[in-house]
Amino acid sequence: MITSIRQNSEKGVFVIEESIGVDYTEFIHVACPEQEFPTHIYTKWRDPSGKREQGIHLLYGKYERFNIHLFGLPQSLIRNFTVNDLEVPYEVRGFVLIIKVRGNEPYEELRNMPDDPLFSGLAWIRKHGLPFVIVILNKNRRALQPSQVQNILSLNTQVSSIAILSSLDATSIGSVLSTLA
Fold this sequence. Notes:
Strand order of the largest sheet: 5-2-3-4-1-6-7-8
Order of helices and strands: EHEEEHEEHHEHEH
Radius of gyration: 16 Å
Largest sheet: 8 strands, mixed
Strand content: 25-35%
Structural class: alpha/beta
């Protein structure tokens, strides 16, 4: 495990995209509009074998309202390590998982996702035991209810909130992040 000095009581939250083509950069950009964009933070990580330490650049933004530091984490990287393998300057308090539902049958599409080999973000988040928020991006918001998402994905009390949004806007992102503040 890599350890680092944690600054104050400020919190870190990882923003992860579950579906290919969902851009977590948009989430961070909308959450942090006053920040020059894109901004990256360099962090060290140790591969699971513990034999080598490497550095990666993560997309970064600070959500001032709740003093939350957001780190964008591409899905392609999550197979390589856990949060404990990363050296970030803030205590990691949770995750935001973004899932984009594209079709006209969002219930069926979401129901089939756990069987999809690309559906690894949720399993990765669960093994950390930290709170998380699921953001479902769906143009047809009324076609899917939070209780359905909870049942389909077998979510327990670890999930802090389920937000079903037609698009990412500052108000919606503020509501999402308030559950992790």
